[in-house]
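Sample pair:
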Amino acid sequence: MKRNEYHVVPNGGGWKVEQGDRTLGSYDTKHSAVEQGRRIAHANEPSQLVVHTADGKIETEYTYRDDPFPPAG
């Protein structure tokens, strides 16, 4: 089963949670965006939340249910 993937990314002076090219919410703080992103990811398992830094690099990832181990490849 394919995992739903969500991202917390910078958005002007704030942060947003997105899935693909869809914005699921905009927030004033990164903390608020991560909290909501985790709620969304938990509600749509199997999923992954990828949190980015202000410069767009990946900071951390949260995987919910069915993380294959060992990973393919």
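The radius of gyration is 12 Å.
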